[in-house]
Amino acid sequence: MLPQSRSTPDLHDSATPGTDAGRHHPGLIVAVFVVASCGLAYELIAGALASYLLGESVLRFSTIIGTYLFAMGVGSHLSKYVDEKALLARFIDIELMVGLLGGLSACALFLIYAWAGSPFRVSLYALVLLIGVLVGMEIPLVMRLLHQRKQAFEALVSRVLTFDYLGALAVSLLFPLVFAPLLGLARTAVVFGLLNAGIGLWLTHRYRAELPQARALKLRGLLVLAVLLAALAWAQKLTDAAEAGLYGDSVVHRETTPFQRIVLTRWQDDTRLYLNGNLQFSTRDEHRYHEALVHPALAALPQARRVLVLGGGDGLAVREVLKYPQIEQVTLIELDPAMTRLFRDTDALAALNAHALRDPRVTTVNADAAQWLETAAGPGWDLIIADFPDPSHYALGKLYAVPMYRLMARHLAPGGLIVVQSTSPWYAPRAYWCVDATLREAGLHTAPYHASVPSFGDWGFLIAGREAGYRPPSALPAGLRHLDARTLAQMFDFPPDMRAPAVEPNRLNTQMLVHYFEEDWSRQMR
Amino acid sequence: MKRRDFIAGAGALTALPWLAGCTPAAPLVTVLRPGLREGHALREAATLPPPSGELRCGVAILGSGVAGLTAAWRLAREGRRDVLLVDGPEPDGNAAGSLLGGIACPRGAHYLPLPDPGLAHVRELLADLGVLTGGLRDDAPEYDEQALVHPAAERTLADGIWHEGLLPTSTAADAAAAARFSADMTAWSARRGDDGRPAFALPLAASSSDPALRTLDRQTFSRWLEEAGHTHPPLRHYIDYAMRDDYGARPDRVSAWAGLHYFCCRRGRARNAEAGAVLTWPQGLSALTAGLRRAAAVRTLSGHAVALNERRAAVELMVQTADRRSVTLVADRVICAMPLHVARHIDPALAAALPREALPETAPWLVANLLLDGFPHERAGADLAWDNVVLGGQGLGYVVATHQLTRVARPAATVFTAYRAGWGDAGEARRWLASAGEADLLEFALADLDAAYDRRWRHRLNAVELVLRGHGMAIPTPGFLDAPARALRDRGGRVLHAHADLGGLSLFEEASWWGERAACQLLG
């Protein structure tokens, strides 16, 4: 990391020999140390925040460092226009401004990202540029101040640069090891802002005799200090609110597990689950999704006793399965123990799945469903529900490939069915019909259907079995909110604008599904 | 649907790549030197305990690498039941596999290009093992998609960014040089000699013997590349990598004929894969050797031959078993499927027929299996692929053993297999490998990963298995096509030789062809 002295090109302009080398100005030297620390800190914070929010950390860091250093160069250049007589007052002003801007930078960026979205990049680089210009003025001004105070030039340069580099070193170590983990980015920025403002106030006090408007300066300083102290107190709430803004509602639970980031939000009677920022369900309409996932297949299997659920640790699919009194065994394979723990043991969340995960007929296995299927033995399943994440990348695409469906088919009891959640036939038609083609390539007979789930849009499912002749059931269990005989029949109808396009099946080595999925969705996201 | 990844699981700290933490705990290192002790004992003609028993068999196969196992498989298929396989000091040879932390990984070669119809024996073998699933004799048969390499297959680290694929094409100049080279190689692939045979084919024996083409074997590949104008540095880094990877030497040591053969001999296609696809398994080619062992169901003796005497009525062998006993083995016929430099020490007739100078030069080879308790943090560019190469790097990149698995989430642990070959002079490299300490070997093996990741990746390193082979592969130096070893194919008698060394290219297809050939000769 470059300390800020690298961008003080006008250093040599002030090379007039000093006379009074004996007098020290520890105040100004301390200022150099603090100023150097803070300058580097804002740069680190902006870089860390940008890569945290935007990804591509190498690109973010290098462009932010570049912008910052460039801005400092501009600042150094501008510093020569500062009037010789008002040097100290202007330096104190700059300290206060840097403190205010830098201190609030992280909070501001969080808020802009959460609520404004697209102007984030512009705001980020503008803020970096602004802080950089101000920080770039600091060291040249300190040099001139010391020079005014008759410091020998050699001693001046060496001392200023020594403390500049020391400050940079201190912060480069303290930021990642102490500040960021302990305080978080928002509060770290505020702490450094307080340091800048503190230096400004202290210098005002120390040199009050020399300053014509010491009172006004002090007033400004105290105001900045007050704003920053308030920000310190509110920074955590602010970032929480920003996260809530991102998800729309207030966050009631957040947890980072080895597998994913789990966030639950609630607004009035609507609870939502996000995994890694992707909406999994909203309690407003999850019944539509889960009724559609389970009943068209299970109601057609009056002989069904054993059901396997792959994925879906929220237990909502299991809740629907348990509506059939003849079901004897439900096994849920969910990777993340935190998910099943959350939806079994937390009363408010277990209520959502009607305490399905505590039912004695339900066995929960925390394992990778694909790996579990490879080694599982025992009698076949009457229904296998594959509720996997969307095939957004190659690793997930494999869960929707021919070998996976062949493997599932081997685990079916005679007459058994598989049901697969298979993305949206409206938004991603080629992806949806690719899953259909893949199931058929695996030697299965399919029945495509779809349901309207407002949170997701028109959502698609596929029923597949080794034998042909699946018929939508005529009777459904009691207590369903969305499905009845009429809506059920309509689900199997695809109007003319939703007819199947020509697609290739998804193979492990070509992964057409991932390509279709990406292309179809990116067309929607335009 | 929110598509911004607000929380990527990583905190702000992971965005600070230059901040290395404390020194990681040293991983558990195992150093394996397959065949070293046994080979050197042979060289020094160590005395043996008196034989404690005698065995008899119709056919003895000495060595269980790809050549030996293909021979065993062919003999079993043709109904020979009187075969005894003497495993040799390194079961499965260069196609061996391992299990590290419960994860299957290669201990040697890790992939096989799609065989063209000319490699009928390889296709038949793959069909027998259930890898080739339909259209055995078609130009483009169907393969088990589990074994076809899954995307993303390859990526290259150049200028600090990962790029998809192996050929550098990130700048316009790179792309132009790559396009010119590819076009040139396509033309050479299609070329036929005056005998109507393809210029470059596998097995080597199927290549044209047109003298006009064979003159390529008189110059080095680097010389040929200069003359053909293929001088763009990133392209040359790639070619350099390819030569070190397959031939254990840089282009300035490799025959131009062999260099062109590398790029022009593969014409295999599949009905269900793109051209240039390869077959691979988490455990590398040991998936095939294990399959061959199963299919051959051959009686196996764990040990290695130390002496061979061809008599009028039979071949008398002395075998040292794995439990250090000596056993006399009397066989009607012998397929000697071991490297030639080893075979010379047990077979006086071969030693007389093939002086030491006539042996192919061999290159040392290091395979490092690295057990990681989690995937390291990736830098910018293309995502982690199956094969990951550092352009201009010291090593040959690394392969991800768990790449071919189907999993809902990334496995909690994985194995990266890093390769190194073709550094320095082969003799010096071999001596260094024999004398270097564990710490130096480890640093040497990790060079490419250190280049690919920031220092924190080593925190993930749990255990390391270093497999050192002093004589990993034959180097096809200029003139290798006329090497005297090739004449052994016509050597009559009770002892037949089968090893990739005979042709001079250390490739699965070659080794397998020599095994197949010996078995067919024996069957008559």
UniProtKB/TrEMBL annotation, chain A:
**One annotated GO molecular function:** spermidine synthase activity
Listed A to Z, the keywords are: Cell membrane, Membrane, Polyamine biosynthesis, Spermidine biosynthesis, Transferase, Transmembrane, Transmembrane helix
Annotated spermidine binding lies at: H290, D314
The record, for InterPro entries, names: PABS (IPR030374), PABS_CS (IPR030373), SAM-dependent_MTases_sf (IPR029063), Spermi_synthase (IPR001045)
Its primary localisation, in coarse terms, equals membrane
- What GO terms fall under cellular component here? plasma membrane
What does the record give as its pathway?
A: Amine and polyamine biosynthesis; spermidine biosynthesis; spermidine from putrescine: step 1/1
User: What Gene3D superfamilies does UniProt report for this protein, alphabetically?
Assistant: Vaccinia Virus protein VP39
TM spans, by residue?
28-52, 58-75, 96-116, 122-143, 155-179, 185-205, 217-235
- Tell me the active site: D387
Quaternary structure and interacting proteins, as annotated: Homodimer or homotetramer.
Write the protein's name.
Answer: Polyamine aminopropyltransferase
UniProtKB/TrEMBL annotation, chain B:
Q: Which UniProt keywords apply?
A: Signal
Is this entry keyworded Secreted?
no
Q: Domain named Amine oxidase: which ranges?
A: 66-354
What's the domain of life for this entry?
Bacteria
Q: Which residues form the signal peptide?
A: 1-20
Q: Which SUPFAM superfamilies match?
A: FAD/NAD(P)-binding domain (SSF51905)
Record InterPro entries: Amino_oxidase, FAD/NAD-bd_sf
> What would be an example GO MF term here?
oxidoreductase activity
Keyword field contains GTP-binding:
no
Question: This protein is called what?
Answer: Amine oxidase domain-containing protein
Q: Which organism is it from?
A: Methyloversatilis universalis (strain ATCC BAA-1314 / DSM 25237 / JCM 13912 / CCUG 52030 / FAM5)
The organism's taxonomy opens as: Bacteria, Pseudomonadati, Pseudomonadota, Betaproteobacteria, Nitrosomonadales
